Amino acid sequence: MQTVTLNNGVEMPIIGFGVYQVPDAEECENAVYEALMAGYRLIDTAAGYMNEEAVGRAIKRSGIPREQLFITTKLWVQDAGYEKTQLAFAKSMHKLQLDYLDLYLIHQPFGDYYGAWRAMEDLYREGRIKAIGVSNFLPDRLIDLILHNDVVPAVNQIETHPFYQQAESAAFMKKHGVYHQSWAPFAEGLNNLFGNEVLVSIAAKHNKSVAQIVLRWLVQRDVVVIPKSVRKERIAENFDIFDFKIDAEDIQQITSLDTGKSLFLSYHDPEVASKMGNWKIDL
């Protein structure tokens, strides 16, 4: 398993399995189990995904020793704040049936995320979390968090795919020792990603799928990926990306696909901030 080393020395698999938008408990449990059987060791979930319990059952069912796994979950906005974060963490751990967490992320850069970060720093110091980080933090908020706290985030999980490549953010994070992790590596199929002529051509050249090309491109950029699928054959296919490399010409062609814009939402938009900051979920 290829790994990356976070800024505190913790090793993290460069490819993992994500469970966003898999709320059905049985389907999620089976998908995570199949991923673990296929060789994945990083599993990424979140309180807001409403499937931590299913992930916990799959982990237990797999029988894989805990020390071989890297489990990530995330804190939702409504639980931001020092005391609420401690309670939310305990709730997530109970659902996951774990004694410690490998990576805990602030899911959104809204609400009292400073209070949340202080609570996460304490949980980290206590050894209950091996690494702490954030998700969806733009460079301005990320540097503000870095400058005014003791622990530098180990990871920032952001939208990253061929149509939104995040080159500037990647350079900024690398400069400050924050590892780049991609969510939506396939852009959730938008912009006809799987039928894109450039990607289809590169896939044919290497006798691989478009999904494998996208994941390989990200991994070669040193970006951690967490593809999602509920189909056994796709789960295995997405993991099979280490027997080839894309070349400079391939990379140049993929680079040309960048639009420089999110396909989902802009964190610069006050309406988005208002909506996300007040988005309550029955956790």
Write a structural description.
The protein is α/β, with parallel strands linked by helices. It has one domain (3-277): TIM Barrel (Alpha-Beta Barrel). Helices cover 41% and strands 15% of the residues. It is built from 11 helices and 10 strands. Strands 3-4-5-6-7-8-9-10 form an 8-stranded parallel beta sheet. A two-stranded antiparallel ribbon has the order 1-2. A hairpin with a 5-residue loop joins strand 1 and strand 2. Helix 3 packs across helix 4. InterPro entries: AKR, Aldo/ket_reductase_CS, NAD(P)_OxRdtase_dom_sf, NADP_OxRdtase_dom. Substrate binds at residue 107. The record marks 74 as: Lowers pKa of active site Tyr. One of its GO terms (molecular function) is oxidoreductase activity, acting on the CH-OH group of donors, NAD or NADP as acceptor.
**What is the domain tally?**
1
Unreliable stretches, pLDDT < 50, 5 or more residues? Answer: none
Radius of gyration: 18 Å
Strand order of the largest sheet: 3-4-5-6-7-8-9-10
Structural class: alpha/beta
CATH architecture: Alpha-Beta Barrel
